UniProtKB/TrEMBL annotation:
<comment type="pathway">
    <text>Protein modification; protein glycosylation.</text>
</comment>
<dbReference type="InterPro" id="IPR012341">
    <property type="entry name" value="6hp_glycosidase-like_sf"/>
</dbReference>
<dbReference type="InterPro" id="IPR001382">
    <property type="entry name" value="Glyco_hydro_47"/>
</dbReference>
<feature type="active site">
    <location>
        <position position="364"/>
    </location>
</feature>
<keyword id="KW-0378">Hydrolase</keyword>
<keyword id="KW-0106">Calcium</keyword>
<dbReference type="GO" id="GO:0005975">
    <property type="term" value="P:carbohydrate metabolic process"/>
</dbReference>
<dbReference type="GO" id="GO:0005509">
    <property type="term" value="F:calcium ion binding"/>
</dbReference>
<protein>
    <recommendedName>
        <fullName>alpha-1,2-Mannosidase</fullName>
        <ecNumber>3.2.1.-</ecNumber>
    </recommendedName>
</protein>
<dbReference type="GO" id="GO:0005802">
    <property type="term" value="C:trans-Golgi network"/>
</dbReference>
<dbReference type="GO" id="GO:0005768">
    <property type="term" value="C:endosome"/>
</dbReference>
<feature type="active site" description="Proton donor">
    <location>
        <position position="492"/>
    </location>
</feature>
<dbReference type="InterPro" id="IPR036026">
    <property type="entry name" value="Seven-hairpin_glycosidases"/>
</dbReference>
<keyword id="KW-0326">Glycosidase</keyword>
<dbReference type="GO" id="GO:0004571">
    <property type="term" value="F:mannosyl-oligosaccharide 1,2-alpha-mannosidase activity"/>
</dbReference>
<feature type="active site">
    <location>
        <position position="533"/>
    </location>
</feature>
<dbReference type="InterPro" id="IPR050749">
    <property type="entry name" value="Glycosyl_Hydrolase_47"/>
</dbReference>
């Protein structure tokens, strides 16, 4: 099993032509020698020709260093258009105008000794280092085995394990969520026994559960259960018409169950009077209803599309994609605050409700899916979904302008909230959930390739650099939210010391941290649910910057999980208070500890060619889907094209 995964990963052929940089010198010379100018030049004397050629050469040099924003964005979002020469001429015109209007802003250049501070790491790790990381990766695999063994012993078939009371609990509608959330992690780790146990349970039980169970949340069921099934389908060879798994059911079993589940989930869309789906579904009779406050969360309704799009691609049925993408098409039309959106939306009116804006709970993965769905669909579209990229870019500008501040005294960068209403205009508060953002920003900047390659190929715009810088600064803050506590584990929510806000005596407990006065942790926010967001971002940033500090930070976090959350009888547990020793424990192992946290740590310490970020997109629950064009075109018989 451990072998079959990299085969499937490496076999993916990815045509990256639309993202390839085209030398501007080539563009100019091609234009010269294929246009009328060519004929005129030929009739000139040699002297005049050489003179003209030098002037154009000079212009080329100047233009190569001019601000690249428009052409890169065009190139990424629209691909190489049908009338290539026309586009080239337009680009030339735009560049000349820009040159006349303002001084060019040069992308940063790297000199030898700037390499480290620019976050580019080209040196190959030595053998000793490699051995060290392999050993650490084995530690994560053992942690996963320990987590699974506790679940299997005490809670097999329940949604979650309560590791202290050694029993199962159905907190997510009773579909055995831990089994499905864990399966692709086991595949990636090459744990055949777990793949067999989880796969067999799914094959024998899941369809029956789906047809008999009651209320489930549309979002949670999509990201964890549907997402887990789809990723298992791919990793076991499904969309390559192969069975790569040495054990467990045939890939088509996962697909059949996924379709059955998604057909029922679709009722959330079809029962709603607007494109905004209801939040809850009654699986057994395929009906849906709104939450008790009649509202849907913005992040929930916009975090279904990667899954529904991929299902449409592999099943050949466009209905999933059609319904899911209506949400984004609708959001595109709604008023926003510099690209930022309120955290509630009404399925009855289709309007945003309230003024609360945050990138934490109920807001987070709206921003994540804007860029990820664009990455998923960009290579097979004729620019139909460029609006997603534009919405993402505008939102990130809004984040940088309205939400980013620095702490006192040590200038940690954080992303605050706009509480709306009478509560004032800015709150220096950040959910741990916001720590997904560094990874998303880095991914959005390089589109999954390394920063080194993106810079070498001149693919980064000034905004990409700004987003990458924010990603790195914010990742540091997220890491310090761990380091500042007595346990080395982050609280659920942190506040930050600013000129307008400070509360004494609410430090994290680690007096040796230089950030004890920057980070404030209120009593009610001191719990830790084994969440993945920080290690997710460390993984993405390591892949993109190749900076080993992200691995070291991940290793420190992993050791704290081992020390304070491991339960001897099996499993890991959430904590009630990360600031006191020994920490009080909470008795719950969330499914995402196996689905996300341990998966990202394992990938962070492993070989970067496994699940490469320019060929896969991770759903918000860390289930990877391929973004190879052919799957969407062939598998979906072209139905992926422009349904919305
Ligand atoms: C997961 O279910 C997903 O990552 C979701 O987007 C946010 N919350 C949890 C993990 O913290």
């Amino acid at each position: 099993m451990s072998k079959s995964l990299p085969y499937s990963v490496k076999d993916v052929h990815y045509d990256n032509a639309k993202f390839r940089h085209r030398s501007f010198f080539k563009v100019i010379t091609q234009t010269l020698f294929t246009s009328d100018m060519k004929r005129e030049c030929v009739s000139c004397s040699t002297g005049k020709f050489l003179g003209l050629f030098m002037i154009f050469g000079l212009a080329c040099l100047m233009l190569t260093h001019a601000n690249k924003t428009p052409s890169v964005t065009d190139g990424l979002s629209k691909g190489l258009g049908t009338n290539e020469e026309q586009k080239v001429v337009t680009d030339v015109g735009v560049r000349f105008k820009k040159l006349l209007r303002r001084a060019p802003r040069l992308p940063p250049r790297l000199s030898g000794n700037e390499k480290v501070s620019s976050g580019i790491f080209t040196g190959k790790p030595n053998e000793h280092d490699e051995e060290k990381w392999k050993a650490r990766q084995r530690n994560v695999k053992e942690a996963f085995t320990h987590a699974w063994s506790g679940y299997k012993k005490f809670a097999m078939g329940f949604d979650e394990l309560l590791p202290l009371s050694m029993q199962g609990f159905d907190g997510l509608g009773g579909l055995g969520a831990t089994v499905v959330d864990s399966l692709d992690t086991a595949m990636i780790m090459g744990l055949e026994e777990v793949v067999s146990e989880a796969g067999s349970w799914i094959e024998s039980n899941l369809l029956e559960r789906i047809s008999q169970k009651g209320d489930v949340n549309l979002f949670e069921t999509t990201i964890r259960v549907l997402g887990g099934l789809l990723s298992a389908y791919h990793l076991s060879g499904g969309d390559q018409d192969m069975n790569l798994a040495n054990t467990g059911p045939k890939p088509t079993i996962y697909l059949e169950i996924a379709k059955n589940l998604a057909d029922r989930l679709l009722s959330a869309f079809t029962s709603s009077p607007t494109p905004i789906p209801y939040s809850d579904v009654l699986l057994k009779n395929s009906s849906a209803h709104p939450a008790s406050n009649l509202l849907s969360s913005t992040s929930e309704v916009s975090t279904l599309q990667l899954e529904f799009n991929y299902l449409s691609a592999i099943s050949g049925d466009p209905k999933y994609k059609t319904e899911g993408m209506k949400v984004f098409a609708h959001f595109k039309t709604l008023p926003k605050v510099e690209g930022l959106v309120p955290i509630y939306v009404s399925p009855h009116s289709g309007e945003f409700i309230g003024q609360e804006i945050r990138l934490g709970s109920r807001g987070d993965s709206y921003y994540e899916y804007l860029i990820k769905v664009w990455l998923q669909l960009r290579s097979i579209q004729d620019g139909n979904f460029t609006y997603l990229y534009d919405m993402y870019e505008e939102a990130m500008r809004g984040v940088r302008h309205l939400l980013v501040q620095k702490t006192i005294p040590n200038e940690l960068v954080f992303v605050g909230e706009l509480p709306g209403g009478s509560k004032g205009s800015f709150s220096p508060k950040m959910d741990h959930l916001v720590c997904f953002l560094p990874g998303t920003l880095a991914l959005g900047a390089t589109k999954g390739i390394t920063k080194e390659k993106a810079m070498k190929d001149n693919l980064l715009t000034v905004e990409d650099f700004e987003n990458l810088k924010l990603a790195e600064d914010l990742a540091k803050t997220c890491f310090e939210m761990y380091s500042v506590t007595s346990t080395g584990l982050a609280p659920e929510i942190a506040y930050f010391h600013t000129k307008d806000f400070y509360e004494d005596g609410l430090g994290g407990g680690n007096q040796s941290s230089e950030y004890v006065n920057d980070i404030i942790i209120k009593f009610n926010d001191r719990h830790n649910l084994l969440r993945p967001e920080t290690v997710e971002s460390l993984f993405v940033l390591y892949r993109i910057t190749q900076d080993p500090k992200y691995r070291e930070w991940g290793w420190q976090i992993f050791q704290s999980f081992e020390k304070y959350t491991k339960v001897d009888s099996g499993g890991y547990t959430s904590l009630n208070d990360v600031t006191t020793l020994p920490p009080q424990r909470r008795d719950k192992m969330e499914t995402f500890f196996l689905g996300e946290t341990l998966k990202y740590l394992y990938l962070l310490f492993g070989d970067s060619s496994v699940i490469p970020l320019d060929k896969f997109v991770f759903n918000t629950e860390a289930h990877p889907f391929p973004i190879k064009d052919a799957i969407y075109l062939e598998g979906g018989s072209n139905m992926m094209k422009g349904t919305v």
